[in-house]
Amino acid sequence: MIVTQVPAQVPAHVPAYVRAVGQLRADFQATGARTQAMNIFETGGLRLRCPKVAQGCEGVLINSGGGVAGGDKCSYDFDVGPQAQVTFTTQSAEKIYRAQSNAAEVDVALRIGAHAAVEWLPQETILFSGARLNRRLDMDLEESSSLTMLESVIYGRMAMGETEVSGSFRDRWRIRRGRRLLFAEDMRLDGDMTGALDRPAVGDGARSNATFLHVAPDAEQRLEAIRASLTDAPCEWGASAWNGMALVRLISPSPEKMRAAIVSLLQSFRGRDAPRVWQ
Q1: What is the per-residue pLDDT across 126-150, written as a single tens digit (0 to 9) for each?
Q2: What is the Cα–Cα distance from 58 to 270, expressed in whole angstroms?
Q3: Distance CA 265, CA 51 (A)
Q4: Which residues lie closer than 8 Å to 83 by C-beta, 6 or more apart?
Q5: According to the 3-state scheme, what is the secondary structure of 173-233?
Q6: Torsion-angle region of residue 6: left (phi > 0), alpha (psi -120 to 50) or beta?
Q7: CA dihedral sign, ordered 231, 237, 243, 244
Q8: Local structure of residue 265 (DSSP, 8 states)
Q9: What is the rounded CA–CA span in Å between residue 177 and residue 146?
């Protein structure tokens, strides 16, 4: 008898019924000296919690599934009304697990009313080896509103010895002010991601990177204070300002050192500590 072993085939598409589809929508309105979340819609494992804070409103985004797998879809949609003050953050770092086939999708849409101030400060996104993630961030501001946002990415579970990471990461940012495109950026890493990051002209051995962006009428005036707060940062960074924006890039082979630099930057820039869930 001749037995032929047929290699296991990875399915071209994971059935939709085994994938998570989460949506989170909410409106934020200024009521006197405070800001409150209203009309909250949650489904598919995404939750919003607003602990009491000294000023404004802090919205903590929670993924009760514990992470994002290939084929999962997460959608966040927020309206922040005039005069409102909101800080968005996450309960923990977001883990992007290995994907069998389809990429995970994360979409963020945020609209900011006149004279409102929004901070978008999630904790790190951790890409496991084999992860596939498509992320889109769309932010719309009025001329008088302000946005402070931070996104940081870690490539691999370094504490678990996972230092060689392959997969796919596509990151698309579109920020508009007064209905005009102000900032547009697309990042794409495919295949051997750490191999690309090892190249001197790309990451020079980095395993983490972050982007800090502040959009406000006075953004350019804050550049020197931003640079001063990073003088002793334990990672590489660069900061510039133009057209009503201040931008900082950070990169490091050590996620811990990059996080330390980010926390120091946030404390100096905000005039208070990072969100409590960061502790």
Answers
A1: 999 999 999 999 999 999 999 999 9
A2: 14
A3: 23
A4: 30, 113, 114, 115, 116
A5: EEEEECCEEEEEEEEEEEEEHHHHHHCCCCCCCCCEEEEEEEECCCHHHHHHHHHHHCCCC
A6: beta
A7: negative
A8: H
A9: 10
Short-list 114, 225, 84, 207, CA closest to 156: 207
Three-class SS state of 237: strand
User: Are 230 and 109 a contacting pair, CB within 8 Å?
Assistant: no
In 3D, which of 218, 260, 271 has the Cα closest to residue 237? 260
Give residue-wise pLDDT tens across range 35-48. Answer: 999 999 999 999 99
Task: Quote the CA–CA distance of 210 and 259 in Å, as a whole number.
Answer: 9
CB contact burial 128-164 (16+ within 10 A = b; e otherwise): bbebbbbbbbebbbbeebbbbbbbbbbbbebeeebee
Is 44 in contact with 71 (CB distance < 8 Å)?
no
Question: Which residues in the chain come in under a pLDDT of 70?
Answer: 1-18
**Contact (CB, 8 A) for 86 and 57:** yes
pTM of the model: 0.91
